[in-house]
Input
Amino acid sequence: MKTLESSRCRKMLLAVACAAPMGLAAAEPTDATRDITAIMKSAFEDKRQATLDRLDQDETQKLCTEARDQALPAVVAKKIAEINLATVKPPADGQYLGDWQNGEVIANTGTGLQSSDDPAKPNGGNCYACHELSPTEMAYGTLGPSLKHYGKLRGQDPAVLAYAWSMVYNSNSYAPCSNMPRFGHRGILTEQQLKDVMAFLFDPASPVNQ
Amino acid sequence: MALPARSTSSLIASLLLALSLPLAAEQTSEEAIAEYHAMFGDENPAELWQLRGEELWKTPRGPREVSLEACDLGKGPGVITGAYAELPRWFEDTGKVQDLESRLVTCMTTLQGLPESEVFAIKFGDGERKSDLEALTAYVVAASRGSRISIPLDHPAEKAAYALGESVFFYRAGPHDFACATCHSESGKRIRLQTLPQLTTKEGAQAAYTRWPAYRVSQGELRTMEWRLQDCFRQQRLPQLKYGSDVAIGLTLYLARKAEGGEMVAPSIKR
Output
């Protein structure tokens, strides 16, 4: 066992997982991102739909992890925006706006993709966790900007709709390392759900615009 | 430590009432807790866990039929006063950095000879199924009330665990791209009406860390830091954090160090 273990360690570029008992991180890893992923995977286990592969990072997640809570260098911000803007798929039928009433339900629903959630139910968008939307819903969070009167203030110019679609489809296309999930790109919400959320933001009859 | 019977029964009453307490969506978390205190005063159902933990600590158990009174939590065998305020820390005998929960597991398996499967049978209590680990944790933590958090990071393994914890705090992953930092690196923010502590600052970390473990009104359970962390990762849409893993201990050490100097008030009451 010991021999096996040390030969495995010798083969690894990064000694970190073998350096100390308990998998303690070495002080100066040469590739922090790869190291930490391996350590994370050893400290977690699959739980229903929340499987270990969720700990793998795409390039955006790696770059944003490296930035920590510091301002992004302009060149990194540009790169992340480019990578993510390229993922945005406009609605197949060209219609950005769906049903605002269903959009309101999505904005109010906080479940979806947690190990404790029922995978048979549609995922929520949980917009109210971070944003003010309808003036009558007082239980809103403040991690994101207020979206009250979103459509009323902006109108429905095609460029305005396309920009908003990009933000809900993939927030990092215009806001690199945003706290907001990339709802379309990561498959959290379906195209139809995104349209419904868009309608909640833009429809003149939506409570958001009252 | 012992509680008069009258007080215990009123605590049980509080507990039952607490379970049916409507925590209105229109209240901030602070208002909900203030309302709880207005109804129940300073009584905290966590005391029920503390009492059971004290009994578990002092009663000879396991194949070796010994109590945990020889358990060394870092300040010498049997010393619990102030011990939690100096955890996690390096332990020579195990060659590991350990938090309170993983250290309790060590004592239960090595001193008392309890099999790990039995110790881990109920990590987190649920209704009638109560966790011994949560009760023991409540008892030991309460003995640090008034103690100031002291995490000197003297041992190289403690420094490494801190560095790991910091890396984990900023690690973005999962379908939602969430990291601990997503919700806990800005001041004055909320999720819905739940105020978020900024854990990267001393003030924010002290306010949060000194109040865990806590009695969770919404769950009717005493929850420990191990529970708190694995539940944060659940909400991050990540897999299950393993109990006592190096990531759990590193993250706890990172938060404890950020809260250096804070005065422990746990077990507290949370929504």
Summary: Confidence is low (pLDDT under 50) at residues 1-9, 15-25 of chain B. The CA atoms of residues 9 and 115 of chain B lie 34 Å apart. Chain B touches chain A through 53 residues (CB under 8 Å). The first helix of chain B runs from residue 5 to 19.
